[in-house]
Amino acid sequence: MKNLFAALCALLLPLLASAQFSLTGKITDQQTGEALPGATITINSLAISVTSNAGGNYAFKNLKSGNYTVAVSYIGYKTAQSNVSLTANSSADVSLTRSSTLTDEITVSATRASAKSPTAFTNINKQEIAKNNTGRGFEYLLEQTQSTVVSSNGGTGIGYTSIRVRGSDATRVNVTVNGIPINDAESQGSYFVNLPDLASSVKSIQVQRGVGTSTNGAGAFGASVNVETNTRMDTAYAEINSSAGSYGTLKNTLSLGTGLLGGHFSVDGRLSKINTNGYIDRAKADLRSFFVSAAYYGKKNVLRLNVFSGHEKTYQAWNGVPEDSVNAGNRRYNEVGYIASTNKFYNNQTDNYTQNHYQLLYDHQLSDAFSFSGAVHYTKGYGYYEEYKNDQAVIKYGLTPVVIGGMAITNTDLVRQLWLNNDFYGVTYNLKYNPNNKFTAILGGAYNEYKGAHYDNLQWTQQSVNITPGYEYSRNDARKTDFNVFGRAEWNVGDVLLYGDLQYRRINYSFLGFDRDLKNVQQQSIMNFVNPKVGATYDVTDNSNIYASLAIGNREPNRNDFTNSSPASRPKSENMKDFEAGYRYSAQNFSAGINGFYMLYKNQLVLTGSLNDVGGAIRTNIDDSYRAGVEVNGSVRITPQLRWAANATLSTNKVKNFTQYLYNYDTGALVATPYAKTDLAYSPTFTGASTISYQPIKNTEIAFISKYVGMQYLDNTSTQSRSLPRYFVNDVRVNYNFSLAGVKNIGLGLLVNNIFSAKYLSDGATYPSLAGGQVYNYNYFFTQAPANFLASVNIKF
């Protein structure tokens, strides 16, 4: 180790000793001379950027002598480039001219936090997305952001993947694409398996933790994820991206674009296919998708049509691996689809779903101060999952036992399909008023409708029950309307930014539930929510600020909460008060931040094990629960070649006066156990992430990526035997780019996941019960693959 350290020092000392200079300047409007704060200044050859401060000033420090191309971009202005020969400390002012054509960025600006908004957020740009886009689920692009835990059902990151932010699962994470809601209207989750390789068509992502700014769709408690798809490319291009790796993983993507035609038109397209066998037994995934975008750019308006679609066929791995199997050393065992009579597994135990998205986006610059952005959208989803069921009572399927040879057929093995066929459509809009750099106001909102048909079919029965394949034994329909309107303003008064945000949301949900007489009939629930948010940011220096905010959020119960209840047992909506306060510092070679949060819940919905008045397992409103913690992050460029970025979250997540109910198989009764104060499930006390990147030569990067997740309980009882052990997993990523005649860029990549083959469990579930006076846990875990790799090649023309 001493020799290695000495060698490293010898390698780095010449770099540290080389002459270094600064480059400073001011960004202004060419016509008015007004300073432009928030402009992005980039030195492309070094892949470093800074942002102009409130006075329009910027600074690069510790640059080696040489020739640099500096690019300056700002929304609504033409991008400017200048060449700088640096032999001493230098200054380069840049005046930007307003663009003759409108840009797309105002589409997502209404639901995004600005650079100084008093809330906790992380921005991920196109360059960062490209580095990590190897075909794994979309959630893995967010894995290195604060307070985030990502999991894969199949163990390789492909197929069904999931995310939790601050302990909140995907049903409490709002997701929008170009301001249009993606969360399922009923379950409230986001299933990126339905949109494989979406990342290849994404320009930027913003993750806001906590309630965040007002947005469209499901209420955000853990976080909101705002996705912006690709916008204008001025030159024609073609790109081929392929990767292959462990467990039969193969990804192929073809992207094409016309560039700007005639100064006004562009067309872009992408076609993708991803396959894997999965780490878990039979956890295969066959994923296909496409993305097509056509746009018209005028002097005052932009019209864009996006059409994208995804299809997935995955073997069911969502039940995890039984604890007994994990303890016995078989971490890949998948018990789903087992046929007891043949001691084999059903080979079509699959999930099959297609989702088609249509977005028509329109932006219009009404005047220098006013701009409008609106969209109409339609999503069509349809598909089913097929499963083999052993020894099923025919009366459960609405059938009368058939008598054959004097014997009644009361039970049979069968294959069933559970279908979902839904339509989601609506409009979103926002009007932005920005008379100067001191004040911005936005009026926005959306109206969306959802229609979902749920129906179940029998495809095959082992015993004759006098039905034909495709017999429908169950059907129910749901309809949901979601209206919201919000107003938001940011006002700069000296060094202080004042922030206010108020949203009204109304939901009308019609579903098949139980009435007061416990008869299964169509029901309706109407909910009205008011979500206010206030905050302030104070500029301590040109590079740092402190902020504080209070946001109130409300969420409706999900589909199962409604359908498995009657008016007497129907749960209440959830309420959360989110207090955030922090400090941010940003400079060229160093940035850091600390954020404290306190999230106080009223009527949080949690599973207790109890049954409601119609006999269904329910989530119960808990009066008092909270999350409190501190998030820290930092990034430092140690040398021009060496950079380290890291973040960590330390939190306490508690529920008070919680009662768990365990089913007693001996008596058939539920046994209640009260707890005064326990930990909330799936809420680690500590999470951390680190990325150390090194550029040994030009256009080459080696990154060592680490993730630590503390112990998590599988339920709300703080029971050690029902928990996920802490884990620490490390990846290595290598990228090398070069060009050849006729080829703009050839990129070679290698990603080695879990390089030290840590045996870790990223997620799980527990179903405890009582028998013979003893508690049996029945734990299931999502085991993750040992060391595995993905090698990639990217060719751009």
Commentary on this structure:
The chain is mainly beta. Helix content is 5%, strand content 60%. Strand 48 (769-771) and strand 49 form a beta hairpin. It is globular and about 100 Å long. The two termini are 45 Å apart. Pfam families: CarbopepD_reg_2, Plug, TonB_dep_Rec_b-barrel. Keywords: Cell outer membrane, Ion transport, Iron, Iron transport, Membrane, Receptor, Signal, TonB box, Transmembrane, Transmembrane beta strand, Transport. Residues 1-19 form the signal peptide. Residues 116-223 form the TonB-dependent receptor plug domain.
The CATH class of the largest domain, by name, is Mainly Beta
Under the CATH scheme, the architecture of the largest domain is: Beta Barrel
Strand content: over 45%
* Total count of helical runs of at least 4 residues: 5
Our measurement of the CA-to-CA distance between the termini, rounded to an integer number of angstroms, reads: 45 Å
Count all strands and give the number.
51
Helix vs. strand class: mainly beta
Helix percentage: under 10%
Main beta-sheet annotation = 22 strands, antiparallel, barrel
Shape: globular
| CATH superfamily annotation of the largest domain | TonB-dependent receptor, beta-barrel domain
Average residue-wise pLDDT: 90
